[in-house]
Design a protein that fits this description.
By secondary structure, this protein is of the alpha/beta class. The strands form 2 sheets. The protein has a 7-stranded mixed sheet, with helices on both faces.
Amino acid sequence: MQDRGVLTIALAGNPNAGKTSIFNALTGTHHKVGNYPGVTVEKREGSIEFQGRTIHIVDLPGTYSLTAYALDEVVARDFVLNEKPDIIVDVLDSTNLERNLYLLLQLIELGLPVVAALNMSDEAAEKGIVIDHTLLSKTLGVPMVPTVGSRGDGVRELLETTIATFDAHTLPRMPNYGEDIEAHIAVLVELLKEDEKFTAAYSPRWMAIKLIEKDPDAQKRIEHHACAAKIRTALEAAWHWIALHYGKDPEIIMSEQRYGYIHGAVSEAIHRRRRRGISLTESIDRFVMHPLVGMPLFFFIIWAIFKLTFALGEYPMVWLEQLFGNLETIVQHSTLSATIQDLLINGIIHGVGGVLSFVPLIVILFFCISFLEDTGYIARAAFLTDRFLRAIGLHGQSFMPLMLGFGCSVPAIMATRTLKSPKERIATILAIPFVSCGGKLPIYVLLAGTFFPNNASTVVMLMYATGLVLSVLSTFFLRRTVLKGESMPFVMELPPYRMPTLKGVLWHVWEKTWSYIRKAGTIIMAVSVLMWLITSYPKAKGIEEFAAGARLSVATAQPGLDDAVIAARVEELVRQYQLEHSIAGRIGKIIEPVIAPIGFNWKIGVALLPGLSAKELVVSTLGVLYGAPVDDTSEGTSLRQSLREAPDWSPRIALALMVFILVMPPCFASLATIRAEAGNKWLAFQVAYSLVLAWLISFLVSMLGRAVGMA
């Protein structure tokens, strides 16, 4: 058990029940995000002080059941079984109580104290649903507290009730599943109790019910029980009796018994008032979900998001570029040594500054996507794309992880745990890296804004669309070769439309943006400094003689040039000479023959290497390799201008590089997640497959660009 000095609350609930809003209302800013031990499912937890005691809250993955099929169900169940929280708070959707109470009954069976939050009670009232929470609480033996998580209503009362229930050692009333079923449960319970060590670890009644349901995880757990053979005999007798009397699978019978118990409990406690007309959700869905309108509207919304992102983000992005340019000028005119100046300018300002310049675009994009998620529209998009996804061999529920991939591949890959078919799950995992994550956006913005300034948003939108097309084609190929199998039917609840709260949307945006900034301040800065080191050392031999020859060449080629201009051009030539003879230059020369057919030079090859660690590093590395030259006014220029003026760059090369970045293996964090979720075999396949595909497609793009006259 947990330390009694700290009250540990496990927050459970169905997806779309408002569990996240309750968690945020409870913890505020006092929470952190990590992973559950041994798995890569996101773990959110927070600690608060309330009524003189410390309360630790763990947000479990949203799940409809504790039956160990989908991996998110396994994680939620294992946490409760192994960590044994002091009390469980089950967040219920008040507009759909009968379905939500199914999980509550399973939590009651665990034998732990339980409190229920009747969340979205305001929406239930608007729909004419009247809930007598006092009567329902007495019927089920579980305290019920009405809440509105998005506004924080009832959250204090929920905490007070939770503490009071724990302090009173109040356990919920066990549901009765009928005399015949209960007789078989009782036999198994008595046998399970004969092993005290086992009884201390698991609730005998819960384990007995799971065994009757033929839960494979429960059967595995009793293998080392002292009475395993007797339990197996009694269990087979129970299965035989149920099959003989009901003619159905035991799991179905237990499900029917639970729903029968739930129906009886809510029949008197819940009443519905007649409402005239159709609801707002139904009215909107008649248009949004229309067979002819739905998909075009979805693509228009996505296009509009990117258009808005560029239209609003261009101005603050330019301001940030100017800010970092001014910082560069300040460093240049400082009294610091030449080496320190070089480190600050070429290692940090050009590296980290180049990445931070894109923060405004990240903020706007995440704001739009978070807004759509909170309204309930993204769930509709999953239904709209279900028929198409099934045609290529994916599950309709694969849409949600694919959409998450626009933010980051790691949580997107983790979200595939909700898919029950292993082959569909692997196919979705392998498709996600083709979706353009937030780390790729700065590269697209940099190159599109530099070489396609009049059509930057269209080019970026084209890259995102290309990623989706590639994920579709790749999945279509894999599901008909190495991952053959039937697609499972798609069942998903459509939540009602809700007006997102500004606080909720801003919180999502802050979490994602801060993660991006934190990465820039740690990983990207470290790699930028490393790139500065390997581009600056070892010092090239004969660099003084080269500088003298370069000065003579520049002065001879253009007589009458100002001394400051000559000095700036010589400095750039010397820098390029040093780059070619540095560690980075030597590495680049080794890579260059492989990527030369595409049109890439050794500098691009060097920039791609840290991109394997994190895609944002491509921008910072280009900032180091193409450090902004100093003109005769001694003002720093942006990376975009430096690339535009570089002789080895062109629109064709930029487009081919964007495609290569799109298709190449994802970042190390994503690869580690693929390994954890799919195994070493599929990790190796993903790396080899995406590398070969990236080279082929970018080569074709480069050749096609040359054929149509693109420079």
